[in-house]
Specification:
By secondary structure, this protein is an alpha/beta fold. It contains twelve helices and twelve strands. A hairpin with a 2-residue loop joins strand 5 and strand 6. The structure holds NADP nicotinamide-adenine-dinucleotide phosphate.
């Protein structure tokens, strides 16, 4: 079998590389479900929102500005609710949590989809490197703030990436370099934040008090979206070579997160990592329970500082 054939072979559940978000939600009635999606205005978040909305869900669509969140309303059903959440601005995330708590809505799934990749230069906010702050800490504040708002069988879905393996630091989480000041590599900074997404899902899964609440992480595939806007030319050229074989369409890219967030066959499944709509294996660091616990503790410390408007220092 060719590489493409092997890659595109369906997994044990009949789903795989080529399945789309529409395929994996076919026949589901999500009319009474409320689903929160970060990064609603672009790429995989938009397609996930569109399809889950088509199946009847009330989608809470979060974007950096209300204008961006509202801009996708024409693709959603009438219950669509646009909200502001700038993940790199803790104040904005805290406010979004309060707004949602005040609605008293019960949320059936939180899909932590938003992400930024490969910022060319080190950027920090509150002393924290921006990939880590946006992709991990922003979502950590959002999810932990909304745990009481989850419905009985609520799910948390962390959209991670294969980059957690491909662009990783040897020691995994950089516990002495959350600022990025001790060394910065744009792809490793992205991979670092995506490893944090997996460890967060694993640790959350352990800490969830109710057995019916679940937390999982996933790799959506490789898809041409706005995510690569900061990619360097060498990386972009390299990606083009394999594009025909390795890339998914946006419709296919949105499948795994749609499946993991709403499919009834995954009721009660937690602490797992998925790729191509099937369970997959993370890096060794992605399975490190001590690292996950340590990351949770330091994330809590960071959030406390951010709540008090204090700058993070690595020492
Ligand atoms: N595409 C791929 O090949 C691929 C592969 C593996 C994993 N992923 C993951 O898939 C997820 C979705 O990415 P995508 O490919 O759909 O990329 P995308 O089209 O660039 O969408 C990313 C979304 O995240 C939002 N976002 C970025 N920074 C934010 C911030 N500070 N606050 C709030 N929202 C922010 C973006 O908003 P703006 O438009 O306002 O910037 C956008 O809505 C990401 O987590 C990414 O890491 C993608």
């Amino acid at each position: 079998m060719s590489i493409a054939g092997l890659l595109k072979r369906n997994g044990p559940n009949g789903l795989g590389f080529s399945s789309t978000a529409e395929d994996v939600t076919q026949g589901l009635n999500l009319t009474n479900k409320t689903i929160l999606i970060t990064g609603i205005n672009s790429g995989l978040g938009l397609e996930t929102g569109r399809v889950l909305s088509k199946r009847g869900a009330q989608v809470l669509g979060l974007a950096r500005t209300l204008g961006k969140a509202k801009s996708v309303s024409p693709l959603m059903n009438d219950s669509y609710t646009p909200l502001v959440c700038e993940l790199s601005d803790p104040k904005s995330v805290f406010e979004c949590v309060e707004t949602l708590k005040n609605t008293k809505l019960k949320i059936d799934a939180i899909i932590c989809n938003a992400g930024v990749m490969a910022l060319p230069q080190l950027q920090q906010n509150y002393g924290i490197e921006l990939h880590f702050l946006t992709n991990h800490i922003g979502h950590f504040i959002l999810v932990t703030g909304l745990l009481d708002s989850l419905a009985d069988c609520g799910r948390v879905t962390m959209v991670s990436s294969l980059a957690h393996k491909m662009f990783s630091y040897k020691e995994g989480i950089q516990f002495r370099n959350f600022s990025g000041s001790q060394g910065y590599d744009r792809y490793k900074a992205y991979g670092h934040s995506k490893l944090a997404n997996i460890l967060f899902a694993n640790e959350l899964s352990k800490r969830l008090v109710s057995m019916t609440l679940t937390a999982n992480a996933l790799h959506p595939g490789v898809i041409r979206t706005n995510l690569s806007r900061y990619s360097n030319p060498v990386m972009t050229a390299g990606m083009r070579i394999g594009e025909k074989i390795f890339f998914k369409t946006v419709a296919q890219g949105a499948a795994t997160q749609s499946y993991v967030s709403v499919h009834p066959s995954l009721d009660g499944v937690s602490g797992k990592y998925f790729s191509d709509c099937n369970p997959a294996r993370t890096s060794e660091h992605g399975r490190d329970t001590d690292m996950a616990e340590r990351l949770w503790d330091v994330s809590e410390k960071m959030v406390l500082k951010l709540r008090n408007n204090e700058i993070w220092t690595d020492d």
